[in-house]
Amino acid sequence: MTPDTRSMFDPKSYSKVMRPPLQAEPLPGWCYTSEEFYRREIEQVFSRNWICLGREDALPRVGDYRAFEFCGKKLILVRSAENRISLLDNVCRHRGTLLLTGSGNTNVILCPFHHWGYGLDGVLRGAPAMEQTEGFHKSDYGLRAYEVTLWNGFIFARLVPGGPSLEEAMGDMDGLVATYKMGDMTCARQKVFTVACNWKLFIEVFMEDYHLKAVHKSSIAGTYTAPEPLERLNGDFATIFNPHQGTSALLTGEQHLALPPIAGLTGKAAAGTRYLFFYPSFAYACTVDCMWFFEIYPEGPSRTRVAMNMCFPRSTVARQDFAEKFAAYEQRWDVSMKEDLVVLELQQQGLETDQYSPGRLSHLEPVVGMFANWLIRHAVEMPRDARS
């Protein structure tokens, strides 16, 4: 049952969630179903933290752009003439017309209504027939630009300025994954889909082992052994390492189709898969031969658009047998994702009833509890500078 708004944002309502992992309960159902809680997440979690918007190689040429919606904002991701990635408002400063749709390449961002033209940096370059408008200066009417930072080929953006840099927020994560050389990888396939569940449910299932034997018993469960104990690291992220033979990116019976391992892997990275979750929404996995990650675009309390991206070293993609062997990787990802989506939509349906009362977390779900603690600190307690 959803409480009144005052109780929903009272830290005391989450006292059982904030207990030590093996004493804690999961988040209450309203965190996955309430419109009010979702709006708070958009304002204080998604807008104020670093969000992954895909890979830099998706925009390889100057002028390449992608128009999309995120957190209720119409945005353009574009590679500018300075060969930088920029994130700009996609609404004309004149009378509010949407500037671009879809994706493509352009040398000017041109409003289809009155042909105000913006450079790829968002600066207003042309405004026809505005010479007689008193006090009008093009320099006052550029498109709003947001913070963008690149990391290992990924694009990260933050809608509200201020707070820790991306490097500070990541803490130890960069050093933990350096051996995978993700900056040298390229995206082999992206699959975009919508799932009828809350965005948190999608990430939580990615970061727990408890469901493997039930949901993936005939597909990937046999690949994994028990995860190693959680590592104590600095930064706004959690990680799980699963030791195993071969690659976790193939079904159990298709290991003979494995592509070459990533060159120079060291330590235990060469013998397992590392799952990582950089809060609030960047979830990815690095295994011995590839990496895959998710872009998360919430579309309401019970609907999430996801872009699943599958990346390999450029030298692997250049192999003559890549397309043939990659088909087996695609099958693995498609099968396991379909299995997850079925139970996620069932979970969302259960949470939307008034019958759910939180149970307890198992030792195979520690990240679910860790993230719940982080979320409460940011969406409920809120940093002091976010209250103004």
From TrEMBL:
Domain of life: Bacteria
Cofactor: Fe cation
Keyword Ribonucleoprotein: no
Gene Ontology MF terms in the entry: 2 iron, 2 sulfur cluster binding; iron ion binding; oxidoreductase activity
PROSITE patterns: RIESKE, RING_HYDROXYL_ALPHA
Keywords: 2Fe-2S, Iron, Iron-sulfur, Metal-binding, NAD, Oxidoreductase
Domain Rieske: 50-157
Protein name per Swiss-Prot or TrEMBL: (2Fe-2S)-binding protein
Lineage: Bacteria, Pseudomonadati, Pseudomonadota, Alphaproteobacteria, Rhodospirillales
